[in-house]
Amino acid sequence: MDAVSSPEVVAAIVFALAVGHTFSTSFFARLAHLQSRHAGLWHLLSEVEVVFGFWAFVLVVTLFVLTGKADAVDYMESRNFTEPLFVFVIMVVAASRPILEFGDATVRALARLLPFQRSLGVFFLCLSAVPLLGSFITEPAAMTLAALMLRDGYFRHGLSRRLQYAALGVLFVNVSIGGTLTSFGAPPVLMVAAKWEWNSVFMLSTFGWKAAIVVLVNAALLTGLFRHELATGRRDDVVETEAGVPVVVILIHLAFLVGVVVFAHHPAIFMGLFLFFIGYTEAYERYQDKLILREGLLVAFFLAGLVVLGGLQQWWLQPTLMGVEPTLLYFLAIGLTAITDNAALTYLASLVDGVSAEFKYAIVAGAVTGGGLTIIANAPNPAGVAILKSGFADQSISPLGLFLGALAPTGIAILGFLLL
Predict the structure, then answer these.
(1) How many helices (H) and strands (E) does the chain have?
(2) CA-based end-to-end distance of the chain
């Protein structure tokens, strides 16, 4: 094993501080109230989406001091920021009014086919059908759609705190595993699909059908458990608009969405499409709501920080995964996913040659199973937090509350991937 360098040790320390910071944002929020002179700074540091970007900046400054300008710049230029850019673009496009109105109309139509009250049906589909759609339109897009519909239809209508965190946990877990029906929907699967030659047929037969069952069970159990609260009041009016969006405008937005998904690995193309999209929304402003540019940029900043910090964690993370029995590796992957990122975890696993089929299954299954436990566990999670936090009483989401809300659906996912 190669000797560990000082920058790697420092990067591990900074990464640990960043993880700790994500669980301490409420402390900075309290400081903002106690120290009005620097309230702006404390409010900034209390934003979960800012955490990893802030500590990535600290790391880069440290690298300049330890290694010099040339090495620090080389490291930054070696990082791949395609995923943060893609998540930003897909969030903004998927959250546009025509896409949201189309998604809402589709969910409502499906809800009418279910044998229970429409508010329950819409809630159930937001937590089941939409996350499974992530296998086709990618998980960040599915998260954006589901989070917006849940926020406007339920979270802003006085749900109990218990139901809010339970729904948040189910949403994050279901989105994380719901992208495994294909080989391109989930970030952790994308990291290994090409090297391990996993196509969509393999994913559906090995992971996808199990994930679909777990998603449906998680959504059904939560809907049934809170059916009385969900049935109170009109919470099924997910989108309220002054006038319907013409079909042709919806189709054009869907074309932009499909184009971004198809060229998800080519930022020069999907960013170009995004600029055209911005121009189109300006030209037909009467059919648009305010685009979620701020929320998208905050999420991109978070993910870019994770890319910078995660690039120097290989020295301890990869050896941790080697030589572990598959079942133990599965649970180890769940735990590591919660404090790193499931795509980073599977990427590091893909660098190891000669691993068994059991190793591959355990690492990917564990990575997607643990993807709902924390905000950093899965790339779409910061998008969900950015959208849904306004529906919480204190305008923020507790990391502990998310973790506790995700425990039960994660447990069901564990049973699904181990026993089915």
Answers:
(1) 24, 0
(2) 38
Q: Which residue has the higher pLDDT, 167 or 24?
A: 167
Q: How many CB atoms lie within 10 A of CB 419?
A: 7
Distance between CA atoms of residues 231 and 118, nearest Å = 9
- Other residues' Cβ atoms within 10 Å of the Cβ of residue 231: 15
Picking from 18, 100, 95, the residue whose alpha carbon sits closest to that of residue 296 is 95
DSSP state string for 30-50: HHHHH-GGGHHHHHHHT-HHH
**H or E element at residue 153:** none
> What's the maximum distance between 2 C-alpha atoms anywhere in the chain?
65
Q: Rounded to an integer, what distance in angstroms lies between the CA atom of residue 137 and that of residue 131?
A: 10
Position 4 scores a pLDDT of 62
Could you read off the pLDDT of 335-359 as tens digits, one per residue?
999 988 888 888 888 877 788 999 9
237-291 pLDDT, tens digit per residue, is 444 444 578 999 999 999 999 999 999 889 999 999 999 999 999 999 999 989 9
What are the distances in angstroms from CA 256 to CA 19, 93, 127, 261, 359?
Answer: 35, 8, 25, 9, 38
Q: pTM for this one?
A: 0.85
CB distance 64 to 72 below 8 Å: yes
Residue found under tokens 């997910």: 238
